[in-house]
Amino acid sequence: MIEIKLSAEKIISFFADIELTPIEKGYLESHAIRYSHIIQTIDPLIKKIIETKNKVNILDIGPHYLTGILKRFYGEKVEINTLGWPIDKKIVPSEMIHTHFNFDLNCCQHKEKWISSDKHDLVIMAEVIEHLHTAPSIVLDFVSTFINPGGFLYLGTPNAVSLKKRMIMLMGQNPYEKIRENCINPGHFREYTIQEIKEYCREVNLSIYDYEIVNYTPAMGVKGKIVRFLGRKYNNFNEMLSIIAQKTNVLF
Predict the structure, then answer these.
(1) Dist. CA 86–CA 106, nearest whole Å
(2) Which CATH class is domain 8-246?
């Protein structure tokens, strides 16, 4: 089990000075353990880069709570750019970021609309790709242009074939929500398996550095027994998957 250095409680405290709505507060509290796990996963990469460059250039795609967590936790050791829809300045104040690129990733399918910038040591794409209706092969091709040679992409997304979804399907129900009518909050268009994400990364010359399939909270009952029997990190029954890819040669 991963040792969490930055607790969920500490993460929630980062936003104690912000007047959050009940919905915003509930989202933060329910996702704090996920943010904690992401920080723990990318922390070795950030420290490795700091050792050689003294500062890490990060691009956070889909800026939200995680952006503020990164800045509050690492301080001046990180310079953060963001990319996505217009930024929520209450949750991500302007002084926390260097540059925001206002760009809808679904526009990646039109290559003439691609934007460019300086390259980054680490690009973070957490809980984003499942909300896009544009093919990941196109999106990741665009995203890769923002990564330094030798730099990294962290991509996190729900596992399309988790045990919970398999059980729901066995009962004759669709485990995936309907496409929403609200284009501002479109929900999940498509979820992916770890093999699919690996293949998409390799298609755009991003090597697989590491990956995991985990539950952020302990599974209980029969599901818990299966999880414990099969192990946590690479158990394809778990709820969430993440991959670290590097702009270099394939490692495994």
Answers:
(1) 15
(2) alpha beta
